[in-house]
Amino acid sequence: MSTINRIFLLLEDGKPRSVRQIARELEMDPGPVSDAVLRQWNKRTIARTKKRISEIDYQHKGRAGRSRNVRHYYLYCLPEDMDYRFHLKPEEEDQEPSINKAQKVREFIRENKDEAFFSREIADALAEFGVKITDVMPTLRKMEEKRDCYIRGYSDLEFERPFQEGFLSTFLDSEKPPRTAIKEAFNRTEKKLQDRASSNEFLQRLHRIHDAIVTNSQRREITAKFFLDNLLDCSPYQLNHAIDRCLQLYPHFRKVKIFNRFVFFYDSSILDKKELQAQIALKKNWLRKVAGRWNRLGHNWEAVAGWFVDQFTSGVTFWSQDHRKRAPLDPLLPKRGMHPRRITLHLLKPVGDRKHFAEVDRVWEVKSTAFAKTPTIYVMEAKWSLVRKRVLDDFFEVLRWSKEFGSDSTRGRVIKSGVVPIFAASSFAKETIKIGKESLSVAQYAGRLNIELWTQAKFNEMLYERSIPMNITVQKVCRVAADEDEVAEILDTIWKTPKKAESILREYSIKNKELLDFEDEIKKKRKNKR
């Protein structure tokens, strides 16, 4: 029995079906079934719904989670079973001769030889002839094969991708020598991009990044990412997007990381290898001075949170790892290695810049009762600086995709039950997060992710309950202590002798006076430069 006869026999029960349902019930491939149904629709022997039906289609992808796509389809039935939802294909009427859209595109390019156009601009200019954006590029590609058109996008090393308004194209004079014709066409596209930048905020940002990198490279210097952040005064997402696009548009721009953390950029066509190495050495010395305070405060804040866990939680067992010690002969690195309570996690999927491994500040287990078979595991991340939504998302993704704390479920990748994420933050950004129709603060958003928040105010309140003076705060302890061990010493001492808290803090500030004065001097120099 033929495929068409089998379809007719199936539809005789009067029940409308989609192509996928017909193929499933006939145990056939959807492709031949779709072709057969379409032929009968054109012959007006099968009716279909007037409007397409849309529904959400979920598919399980294993570890990758569950995909969610919108599927569009028609329902089909026999003509005798039609109701108000169905119709037959309208009979074709005499139509006027169709317009050759490809010819219109070719004529437009040739008539405007001295200008460059984005594909969307061409479609808008020829809209009266029924030309759409999907009609433009196939014609331009055929012209490009015949060397009648020059097409430009931005390169990401593997592919050439369109700009926001589509690919940029202009006429290519095949009668001239290839090098001359391409140079003239390139200059026209370059002029178009420069004119476009004057009215496009993103392109203004792009050109300012380009000019800064080129200018600093000519001075034989490399450009820091935080310098570009201060220069543009935009959001982190806008900055990263502009930098990524700039690196795609200008392949001779290079990125280098110092201490595997601080990002710098330079123009490889200007700086040679010896000049680059000299600049990296200078920046390392500069970062040791400027970033030393950032690192010290960040590690001290981790120690504060860890001390309060030790002090107020019974039955605590901290995780620890024996990290590789750094070479003591290297003057650019600190004498000590990573703190043993800082834990390295194994990632099953890259998260941000981290491909295989990520670190969390503290992990500890608590066995609450004698009847509890599995202990509760607490995972803490501490951050001294301002905390935004993206920081919480990053922490959540690290735990979700880690081998130690993530697991697969029917809902995709989730954090294991019994694991409690904790984020110890010094301050939160005044950021409004839109989720559907709701507006949430950063703290409320953390609650949605089931992340527990610890703040400086929470720790200070515990100190005040111990009758420690109000002017003694964990912030001051972090600023005065030279390292994590001193943080624990100061907190232990003032906890045992609250009345001597002020004198104890004063002693440590005198002890570390040289370090604190040096950091203040560096801070003043940076402010004066601004």
Protein architecture, described:
This protein has 530 residues and is an alpha+beta fold. It folds into four domains: 3-87, Arc Repressor Mutant, subunit A (Orthogonal Bundle), CATH 1.10.10; 102-198, Arc Repressor Mutant, subunit A; 220-271, no CATH class; 293-324 and 339-525, no CATH class. The strands form nine sheets. The protein has a five-stranded mixed beta sheet with strand order 14-17-18-21-24, with helices on both faces. The protein has a three-stranded antiparallel beta sheet with strand order 4-1-5, with no helix packed on it. A three-stranded antiparallel beta sheet has the order 6-10-7. It is flat, with a radius of gyration of 33 Å. It starts with a helix and ends with a helix. The model is unreliable at 326-335 (pLDDT under 50).
**Number of alpha- plus pi-helical segments:** 18
Major beta-sheet overview:
5 strands, mixed
Average of per-residue pLDDT values = 85
- Give the assembly state of these chains: single chain
Question: Strand order within the widest sheet?
Answer: 14-17-18-21-24
The stretches of 5 or more residues where confidence is low (pLDDT under 50) are 326-335
Helix-and-strand structural type: alpha+beta
Instruction: Give the end-to-end Cα distance, rounded to a whole number of Å.
Output: 83 Å
**Helix content range of the residues, please?**
40-55%
Number of strands: 24
Please state the CA-atom Rg, rounded to the nearest Å. 33 Å
